[in-house]
Amino acid sequence: MIASASQLEEARAARASYRAGEVAPTSGVAHGLVQANLIAVPADWAFEVLLFAQRNPKPCPVLEVLDPGAYESTLAPGSDLRTDIPAYRIWREGELVEEITDAGAVWEEQHPDLVSFLIGCSFTFEAGLADAGIPIRHQELGRNVPMYRTSRACAPAGRLRGDMVVSMRPIPADRVADAVRISGRYPAVHGAPVHVGDPASLGIADLAAPEFGDPPEVRDGEVPVFWACGVTPQAAIMASRPPFALTHAPGHMFVTDVPDAEYLA
Amino acid sequence: MIASASQLEEARAARASYRAGEVAPTSGVAHGLVQANLIAVPADWAFEVLLFAQRNPKPCPVLEVLDPGAYESTLAPGSDLRTDIPAYRIWREGELVEEITDAGAVWEEQHPDLVSFLIGCSFTFEAGLADAGIPIRHQELGRNVPMYRTSRACAPAGRLRGDMVVSMRPIPADRVADAVRISGRYPAVHGAPVHVGDPASLGIADLAAPEFGDPPEVRDGEVPVFWACGVTPQAAIMASRPPFALTHAPGHMFVTDVPDAEYLA
User: Fold this and answer.
1) Which end of chain A is less enclosed by CB atoms within 10 A, N or C?
2) Within this chain, do residues A156 and A115 fall inside the same structural domain, yes or no?
3) Chain-centre distance of CA A207, in angstroms?
4) Which of B45, B49, B50 best probes binding to A when mutated, by most A CB atoms within 10 angstroms?
5) With an 8 Å Cβ cutoff, is A112 touching chain B?
6) Do A51 and B62 touch (CB under 8 A)?
7) Does residue A142 sit in the same domain as residue A75?
8) B159-178 residue pLDDT tens
9) How many domains is chain A built from?
10) For residue B169, what is the domain's CATH number?
11) A70 touches chain B (CB under 8 A)
12) What is the ipTM of this complex?
């Protein structure tokens, strides 16, 4: 499965633009190519992050684990994880201390043993939903997808624990089955929804107040549909307080050169 | 997905029998329940084993990673990984030093930091093949499945590297497509074959001389079909020489309580 020349050009241009300082959510960018969540931790925490992902594959589908200190992803040759994401978050002892657009300095500070994980992102299957004529509201509105911390605990791994985070898309009731079917074809990027309707039973008190991203707009005849979200490791960082972590900012993903179809089951 | 009472009874009886000292290959035991490969390593090597599996998912599909020192698998409540496998191998500095039927003493020696990995096994999809009327020759003959080290290198992970090991089943030419289709439904247990026919191009010089298991019997009109094999981590241990490792003996698996259907894609 090879990306088209125009797709690759768009992905490379996007990464170059973020490298030069542009900040924007990446939903809809380089349509048809995989986007990824980033979490980078000191080597001492790497096993627990990988184990957490293995035990919680729906929210944490691992696409790539880089060698300690490495920053060029095999999913995008020539890329630089220190600069090619639009916005980053720096976490110290579980506290969000800074949001930055270039992680070069902090990478240097943590050198040589920062281990980077790229985790699948639901933006991948959004392309499949859009291709099937299912509206992607947050894209239509030019907003970031709304994300919520749930009351559903992930399986812990050593020192790492936390609740699952979900992304939400309002789907017309007559297209919910299609949305389940289509996203289910992409198990490596969260797959089928974890929950359809009834936000309260996920522990979400107010749909209008997401913990991450922008508020949604749910219209008459639409049902809120929830997918496991790659921001889940950030919630685990808040709960587990490792000395340091570097992540992407929610909705601001790493755009790869890999076609979505590569992850079709 | 719940196993039937008679399946569970058979699985528990098998584990109890192995615990009491019985030694036999497990192919065909507790038909319809998942079997697993074991590899247990010191905690210092655990990240590399998990990373090796993440980078080589066809030969190393991880079903469970236990906490350091733990030996009761969640795939079989009440089980004891120290005793419930028919035969074990002990590896020191990459050398096979002993084959034993009870790992209690060596577990004690390595306590408290032995980390156990359960890896999917192709015996799982054999049930699907048999149900479709595809002959499983090594079962018919009461032998162990033949396994071969190939010339195909796995993606390395830190200190861990090695060549892929495959299992081989001779399949009637008119059932090869069915065998591909059916095994492909089980991506968590090696999935579709990695290779059909032409052993030489996998680096297999002599089909009659497998590195692990028993010699095959390939009949007229049959094609040798190769699946990625969970013995691959053992080949990696030989090549990478960690100070200690405990594995199952090839073909002598851990029988779980989990139905094969749990891993249907």
Assistant:
1) N
2) no
3) 20
4) B50
5) no
6) no
7) no
8) 999 999 999 999 999 999 99
9) 2
10) 3.30.2040.10
11) no
12) 0.82
